[in-house]
Amino acid sequence: xxxxxxxxxxxxxxxxxxxxxxxxxxxxxxxxxxxxxxxxxxxxxxxxxxx
Length: 51
Known about the structure:
By secondary structure, this protein is an all-beta fold. It contains no helices and four strands.
């Protein structure tokens, strides 16, 4: 898996990086946003892609 396709997902509440995901940069131009479970907040919270 190449590094340019990896995207780190960060919790919008506590700012911890919890997940890694893949995305196709040719088809998806904007940053990823997913509702995922955060271990530190113990809830399903919106996660956004970081650099």
